[in-house]
Amino acid sequence: MQTYLFLLAAVAFETFGSSCLQASRQFTRLWPSLGVIAGFAGAFWFFSLVLRDLPLGVTYAMWSGIGIVLITGSGWLLFGQRLDLAGMLGIGLIIAGILVINLFSSTATH
Length: 110
Description:
By secondary structure, this protein is an all-alpha fold. It contains four helices and no strands. It has helices spanning about 1-25, 30-50, 55-80, 85-105. Helix 1 (about 1-25) runs antiparallel to helix 2, helix 1 crosses helix 3 and helix 3 runs antiparallel to helix 4 (about 85-105). The longest helix has 24 residues, at about 55-80. The radius of gyration is 15 Å and the shape is flat. The relative contact order is 0.15.
């Protein structure tokens, strides 16, 4: 359970860092630029903790899938970015893939 909390923390830090990257305007704004550094440093630290217990491929698939969903929400909430129907269907498929890995794959448990 703790491993999955570390994974969620890694994704949260990555989402924060990616949102700051958008807000930094190509690193021309100080505070968002520092947020990028802090966000990705936290993300990789927590990701390294997850890799003690779960295999790299499955972990990276879950991290990137959950991250895509969260950063899409962040883009919508913070920056007014929208998805069309195809984008929403794609996000739905990503969520379905994460569920398949976690519910049916023995690889996800080690």
